[in-house]
Amino acid sequence: MASRVAILLLLLAASSALAAAQKGSSSKAPPKAAASGPAADAGPADSSPNTDLSKALGGPTGQYSKFLQLLHDTRVDDQIKAQLTDSYNGLTIFAPNNAAFDGLKSGTLNSLSSQEQIQLVLYCVLPRFYSLNMLGSLNGKVTTQGSGKDGPYKYDIKRVGDNVNVSTGVNSMLLGAPVSKEFPLAVYPVPKMPLPYELFGPKPPTPAPAPAPAPAKSKSKTKKHKKSTGIAEPPVADDSTAADDQKSAAATSAGGVARWVAGLAVLGGAVLSGLF
Question: What are phi and psi of 241, to 5 degrees?
């Protein structure tokens, strides 16, 4: 009996010691919140790409307000926003400042039709993202949003020293430092309005009007002789020949009368000489 009590006491003591050991190990473990808190917040911040052209150009009160207004009036700003959201190529924009608009001849924009104004704005937009180094390496003709599949409305872009020169065929300009250079939107200020050759280049000369048709010739009153049909036609008398014939007949008649009178005189003389 005593041995059973002793064994029971030993089992109770062992279980108590095991419970104490487990409690001590759990109290030394770091809390889960501490392990996941600061370490999780140490990751990189979430930065969205810049697709707000108006913000990049300083908004409606900035030095590009006239360009932004033209984008809005032609509804090209909606097209740009949609392309920046959905396109994998990005866009590059040459943005003329307000001074560039002021440098245009009076009435230049108003002289363009609505479609031509849209073409003018699309000409300022390249259909993919170009860094400044990429633009400098192009060295040739570059299509724009205004170009067709193989159509006009292109730039001639070349590097000039450390700068990039953009030529339209009508005017040219150096690109300023980009105001937006992160994909998908690159925006370069330009000091002039890019004028596409197709809208502002010299017009071909107007073709000369076709010569007026020559006046119809009046029909001659003189009757034309009909072509011979196998029957001889009487000759047409010439007026001068007819007059000469009349004179000759008259002379012949006068001579006959004179001879007749002379004959009568001779006959009368013979009769008289027989009587006497």
Answer: -65, -40
Per-residue pLDDT, 210: 73
What is the domain-level CATH number for residue 145? 2.30.180.10
Contacts 24+ apart (CB under 8 A), 150-155: 152/196, 152/197, 152/198, 153/119, 153/122, 153/123, 153/196, 153/198, 155/194
What is the pTM assigned to this prediction?
0.59
* Of 167, 161, 160, 174, the residue nearest 144 (C-alpha): 167
pLDDT band at 275 (very low <50, low <70, confident <90, very high): very low
Range of the domain at 88: 53-195
The stretches of the chain forming alpha helices (DSSP H) are 2-28, 32-41, 53-56, 65-73, 76-86, 98-102, 114-122, 132-136, 197-200, 239-275
260: three-class secondary structure by DSSP: helix
User: What average pLDDT score do residues 199-211 get?
Assistant: 79
Strands 125-126 and 91-96: antiparallel
Asked if pLDDT for residue 253 goes beyond 70, the answer is no
Residue 4 lies in a domain: no
The reply to whether 162 falls in a domain is yes
**Count of the separate structural domains present in the chain:** 1
CB 145 within 8 A of CB 122: yes
**CA distances from residue 192 to 63, 77, 203, 234, 257 in whole angstroms, order as listed:** 13, 20, 22, 91, 115
Q: How far apart are the first and last CA of the chain?
A: 243
Number of other CB atoms surrounding residue 92 within 10 Å: 26
